[in-house]
Amino acid sequence: MNFNKVNNLAGFAVCAIACTVYLLTMERTVSLWDCGEFISTAYTMGIPHPPGAPLFILIARFFIILFGNNPATVAIAVNSMSAIVSALTILFLFWTITHFARKLIQKNDEPLSRQSIFLIISAGTVGALAYTFSDSFWFSAVEGEVYALSSFFTALVFWAILKWEQQSHKPGADKWLIFIFYMMGLSIGVHLLNLLTIPAIIMVYYFKRFKVTRLNTVFAFLIGCAITGFIQKFIIQYTIKGAGAFDIYFVNELGMPFFVGFTFFFILIAAGIAYGIRLANKRKLHYAKLGLWSSAFMLLGYSTYLTTMIRSNANPGVDMYNIDNPINLEGYLSREKYGDWPIAYGPDFTDKAPFVKTGDQYVRGKDKYEISGSRYKQDWGNTPSSHLFPRMYDESNDRGQVDCYRQFAGLGPDDSPTMGDNLKYFMKYQAGWMYMRYFMWNFAGRQNDLQGFGNPRDSNFISGISFIDNAMYGNQQKLPDSAHVANKAFNRLYMLPLLLGVAGLLFQLKRNRRDLLVNGLLFFCTGLAIVFYLNQAGYQPRERDYAFVGSFYAFAIWIGLGVLWTKQVFEKITKASVATYAASALCLLAVPVLMAQQEWDDHDRSQKTLALDLAKNYLESCPPNAILFTAEDNDSYGLWYAQEVEGIRKDVRVVVSTLLGTDWSIDQLRYKVNDSDPFNVVFTPEQVAGDRLNVVYYNKMPGFEADKYYDLHDILKNVIASDDPRYTTTSEDGDVYHLYPTQKFSVPVDKKVVTANGTVNANDNVVDSIHIDLSGKNFIFKNDLAILAVIAGNQWKRPVCFTNNSTAQDVGLDKYTRLNGLTYQLVPVENTNNAGINTDLAYKNIMQKFDYGHANKKGVYFDEENRRRINTIKLAHAQVARGLALAGRKEEARKVLHRFDDEVSQANIPYGFTSNRGNMHNIFSLQFLESCYQAEDLTLANKVAASIKKDLQQQMRYYQTLGNTSYTQEQLVNNAYMLLQGQEGDLSYRQTAFAQDILSSYQLLQQLAKWEQEFAPKKGSL
């Protein structure tokens, strides 16, 4: 039997299984998070967020064309690309496992027996299928994101170095090395994960070509790390930085066109590499020649970033950071807008690291590059508390950074951290909570899909073995159903994949320590090394397990090798042939088959359409030719997809408020995008270029009265934008900051205009001007300034809408907003008891235009983030129904409520559902319930109340089991209340994490009881 032939056929068979699984379970349209951005930019050849993914965009565009270049199949095409490249990742994983397994079985190149071949193939099959059905990898394999393609490149280069290892004794084998670095260069245009394979690759090369000693092994590892750092800093960043400096010099000093200096720089690099290769050939410097060829091909692969500048110059609809010149490309690649963090040396959160000036900020002008401000960088080493290995460095608390430090390091409110606390935080949070928990999700089991913040209820790993899980987290059988047995992410793997992987690791340790070191480096560098580098601070907006799939890939190799260990164990009790087949069958059933059975229901997205439907609901809630300010990724990216791909409501201008603090985002408002005409943003391009007006400061000035409202347009144009010394101040570094002399602004209202264009209704009490009071702010950031500029320049000619009222609240406009369905429109009418509801329009939009993500179909899974989006839709129904009921239109109110109830199945998303962030799911449902009572729909109210009550009662029972069970419910609540008030509350350490939930659950139950009594049918009534 020919091993290579069997190995190839079996590999493709496993690949086909994985491909079938992913194609069957993939989402048929856009998903939440960044998928809408990537799919829409692939379709329009636009620019996604930094550091971009130009190769991903090009390959995705190819798939879109392959699927007919039809808007109806765009998402299917890109998602299919992820599914197919994920299946190819499984193919290379299979061949990698069989490579290692063959080395453990075959001795001295002796022919392999049929039984040995079967065992090797079984190892590859079990390991590859285990990774196929692993939680994190499966999640990325069925959506249009970069992580599937990134994993493919990681698998490809690791497999390629093993192919080189097999052929290293043959002439020309080093071509595999050049191929590897070319693939790495290409992979930079997808994601940087691939670079972390370099230390493992270097070790394979070292073991084949050099004398192996302990000192040399350490030296080889350090060389691998140095090469990784060289590529990350010099090839990726400094080449672009140098090219940008050349372009500035050629344009500003030599008067040449843009891009000449940029081009000349890379011509110099190419010439230098060519000369170096020629010299290395002449002097027979093999390693120098190999390094230069590798660098050349890596740069060639990296050149996909040139397409970013080309595409950006075409001004596509999605053009993040306007990368139309080398200077912007430099900032784009370095993610300079995302901030910096210390890695090896820095402060504790008790100190704020100062900012130091590092140079001038340039922007592209009409004929040359112009200075628009200064570049600053935090000097992490310049604080009293700076030390090695800083883990608790972020002094801000906007995402709960300091709270997270104190929670996981066990610090009191006034305690200052020590080095021991930094290490404790690293071990418990960064390495434990933000890595090991994810690792165990994949190979031990998962508790539920509630985002975890360190408590024993939400998204811990579990074993599935009751006494173990109960010892770790308390009685799991007492968990609310929605966080336990009714949660589809409740996956019990009984630690079998973990145990088989550990067995494979130990087996490889015993038989081939060099290969163990190679795979161990891959495991470490794509796992804990990322943890060390990212230095995560505070609670994250989402779970980050997708960042560590490379290390899970490496562990899957050990799972495959665990089959060999199992066979060895079986040999002790039966003959070898029986042991081979028994071990293979047992491992297949106990690991990949179990994983597939447990995880299919929470990875099947084949019927879900919520991300697209949510976007459609937002857009259809906007009047024609509106501008829509959004707040976050899951509001914005789905909207981009709906407009750019499916052509839905292209008259609406979608603006991400958090990105509006950049010159490129403001400038995009100056030109037409799709069917949306330009906006007047008051400021000139020069006034907002670069860092200008990044923040403006309030300063009392003579001539401006504190209680008077001043015209917003006048203040923006003639004061804030002015360079008059009266309205500016200069810092010690020479930077100019602009000032504003009042915190109260007005926007006049032309009643004829707002009546004629439908901004107000005929019976509205229209104000003469809206008043904006920002007395609570002593400074305004550029993004809020830009929103105010749009409103001032618009003069009520076009509708201004918000996806949520908090954005309007941030700029003092919330009392002038009115709900049109799912969006809030700015109107010159103060909110009344009707809570700002445009009842007629909102009713029409909900009843005729809203969709619900197929939430009424049987078995559709909505994870926590999807449920949050459904809650947004639920709240809109509750608000509109309340407005209708208060207006006496109770029949219409009931129709609105039943519209939601009919379209959102209780089996998929119950009204009562345990959630983090303060019981928000039940709070939204309670508002829906209140509207049911106001609409006098007691049948629906009873249904909603029963679901909420069941979940809240289960929560309270669960919280009581975590501490002193002799406490009554009232005593438990009183202790939780005292703790939240900063007093001593007698709660166990497990209960402490739920103090807010204990209190809110009790309060919600009290409200339910009150309403049940208040709205109960009276005796004798029909």
Structure description:
It is built from 38 helices and 18 strands. With 1022 residues, it is of the alpha/beta class. A hairpin with a 4-residue loop joins strand 2 and strand 3. The model has no long low-confidence stretch (mean pLDDT 94).
What is the fold's blueprint, element by element?
Elements: H1 3-25, H2 35-44, H3 54-66, H4 74-105, H5 114-132, H6 135-141, H7 146-167, H8 175-188, H9 198-209, H10 214-253, H11 260-283, H12 286-302, H13 306-313, H14 326-333, E1 345-346, E2 355-364, E3 369-378, E4 387-388, H15 401-409, H16 419-443, E5 445-446, H17 466-473, E6 491-492, H18 496-511, H19 513-525, H20 528-534, H21 549-570, H22 576-599, H23 610-620, E7 627-630, H24 633-644, E8 653-656, H25 663-668, H26 685-688, E9 695-698, E10 710-711, H27 712-720, E11 728-730, E12 736-740, E13 744-748, H28 751-756, E14 769-773, E15 779-781, H29 782-794, E16 800-802, H30 805-810, E17 817-819, E18 824-826, H31 839-849, H32 864-886, H33 890-903, H34 916-934, H35 938-961, H36 969-980, H37 989-992, H38 995-1014
Parallel strand pairs: 7-8, 7-16, 9-12, 10-13
Antiparallel strand pairs: 1-4, 2-3, 5-6, 9-15, 11-12, 13-14, 16-18, 17-18
Helix pairs in contact: 1-4, 1-5, 2-3, 2-24, 3-4, 4-5, 4-7, 4-21, 5-21, 5-22, 7-8, 7-9, 8-12, 9-10, 9-19, 10-11, 10-14, 11-12, 18-19, 18-21, 19-21, 21-22, 23-24, 31-32, 32-33, 32-34, 33-34, 34-35, 34-38, 35-38, 36-38
